[in-house]
Design goal:
By secondary structure, the protein is α/β, with parallel strands linked by helices. It has nine helices and eight strands. Strands 1, 2, 3, 4, 5, 6, 7 and 8 form an eight-stranded mixed β-sheet that branches. The protein binds S-adenosyl-L-homocysteine.
Length: 257
């Protein structure tokens, strides 16, 4: 990337970061779904360690803290998200066992077999599901769990419009059966897979963005990058309403063999 493209890229990233930090979660999810995925994981104590990768501003991190006694290390690329997460942890009095750090999921600062649980909601697509579950496995203790959400097809075939959109956005989107098989191949026992209910997308994600979009477009009136970004988010939301029977997010829980 040359210097000019690099600064355009940075400007875009800052805008995206600002936009998403104004909403509670940066991807589809809910407290109930995090608790449900957690229900498949046993034997967590106050000695257990959880890594929350691509944690954003910590929506699910706080739910993990509220529902376990474990020590949680949360990692995200964006310093601003991590500042918000650490503020939340402080407010909820979790600062002694919840710590947000800036870092990349491609180069995690963890030790082998350090963690009892690896958690990642709405984020593994940044590295790719298959690469993520394979590369992160070494950081789990034997018998440890991985729990991630991932965009998945619900049916064997689907209308061309949504197929094309997703194959451009994230070519690794695949059926639930294929994702579970990848998990097994990577050395995990597939413990559970379940579809996130629609409220995770509608109430908790797209509806939250409506107000954020208004504020954002007023603040950045005339800014093409901001306008194109919002237009893309709106398009994505419209496609969800139109095609939600064909795809969604799925929680995959696996146990390291
Ligand atoms: N888990 C949160 C955020 C999901 S959005 C939630 O469900 O609300 C995806 C997150 O991945 C963003 O916060 C983004 O900053 C982060 N991310 C993107 N690339 C990353 C990388 N290479 N390493 C770590 N985090 C990354």
């Amino acid at each position: 990337m040359n210097d000019e493209n690099k600064s355009i890229h940075e400007f875009e990233m800052n805008l995206i970061c600002e936009y998403f930090s104004s909403i509670e979660r940066q991807g589809p999810g809910s407290k109930e779904v995090t608790v449900k995925a957690l229900s498949f994981i046993d034997n967590l104590t106050n000695k257990s360690k959880i890594a929350d990768i691509g944690c954003g501003t910590g929506g699910q991190t706080m739910v993990l803290a509220q529902n376990t006694k474990a020590k949680i290390t949360a990692i995200d690329l964006f310093p601003f998200f991590i500042d918000l997460l650490n503020e939340k942890a402080q407010k909820l009095n979790f600062q002694n066992r919840v710590k947000g750090n800036v870092g990349s999921m491609e180069n995690l600062p963890f030790r082998e077999e350090e963690f009892d649980v690896i958690w990642s909601e709405g984020a593994i697509y940044n590295i790719g599901f298959e690469r993520g579950i394979n590369e992160w496995r070494k950081f789990l203790k034997k018998g440890g769990f991985i729990a991630v959400t991932e965009a998945s097809w619900f049916t064997e075939t689907r209308p061309a419009e949504i197929d094309t959109f997703w194959n451009e956005a994230y070519p690794e989107i695949d059926t639930i059966a294929n994702k579970v098989a990848q998990m097994q191949k990577a050395g995990y026992v597939p413990i559970a897979s379940f579809i996130l209910p629609e409220n995770c997308w509608i109430e908790n994600f797209y509806t939250q963005q409506i107000e954020a979009q208004k504020v954002f477009l007023e603040k950045y009136a005339g800014n093409k990058t901001a306008e194109n970004f919002v237009a893309y988010q709106r398009h994505e939301a419209q496609l969800y309403y139109k095609y939600k029977e064909f795809y969604g997010y799925v929680f995959y829980v696996g146990k390291k063999v």
